[in-house]
Amino acid sequence: MATIKTLLLATIALCIGLAAFIYSGAYPVGADVPHTAFTNWVLETLRDRSIERASKDIQVPDLDDPELLIEGGPDYNEMCVGCHLKPGGKESELSQGLYPAPPDLTKRASDPRRQFWAIKHGIKASGMPAWGPTHDDQRIWAMVAFLQKLPELTPQQYQILTARDEEAPDHHH
Amino acid sequence: MKIFTPLLIVTLLLTLAAQAHDPSQHKDKAEKPQCAALKDMDIKKMDKQDPVTQALIKKCMKQLHPEEKPETEK
């Protein structure tokens, strides 16, 4: 009985301490002050496991269709390059200022399921918006197809594939 | 007045969020594909089965071979 009472008191004290810490405003929320290692681990693990779980059943279409690259390239250049960079490009103000730092997608391609999910749903408190409400799945898959090839593109190839040629037929109706 | 300002901001944000990213908005400031760079890449040595090569050739067909009509117009 005494053990239960002690545990109960400890739990109440912990809750009061946690609430006091939250209301104190002592935790720095500025993007220029990194999280503690523990907070960082908690948030990164939470994010990775959540995306892994949510995206595991997504069916990946054939991403080797050149039409998808032609369609996805201009969208990437207009919507993503400011944070996720381009081949031969320098770091941007956004890529340096955001916290957590957005991944440099010119370095390596990650799992297409995870990319599709992150583009469609966004990620809370990271600066990554959800493009799903305004972009259909076909258009998001085109961006994923482009992301899969992005690390191997030269700056010249990137320029050609991302230019929105006004004479080319419009892929979005 | 205090209550109207947040309402106005929320309304404005919702209005902006409802607008899809429209490619036609970017056409005015869009740059053309610089296909001259493709000539320097030696297309013969490029893998024709590679989706990137196919996309590059498709995108630059008009600039590199203006006399040839795209498949859809034949």
UniProtKB/TrEMBL annotation, chain A:
Q: Name one GO molecular function term.
A: metal ion binding
Q: What domain of life?
A: Bacteria
Q: Which Gene3D superfamilies match?
A: Cytochrome c-like domain (1.10.760.10)
Alphabetically list the UniProt keywords. Heme, Iron, Metal-binding
Domain Cytochrome c residues, every copy: 67-151
UniProt cross-references to InterPro entries, sorted A to Z: Cyt_c-like_dom (IPR009056), Cyt_c-like_dom_sf (IPR036909)
- Keyword Lipoprotein among record annotations: no
What is the name of the protein in this document? Mono/diheme cytochrome c family protein
Automatic annotation (TrEMBL), chain B:
Q: Where is the signal peptide?
A: 1-20
User: What highest taxon heads this organism's lineage?
Assistant: Bacteria
| Keywords carried by this UniProt record | Signal
Q: What is the protein name stated in its UniProt record? A: PsiF repeat-containing protein
Instruction: Write down the species.
Output: Microbulbifer rhizosphaerae
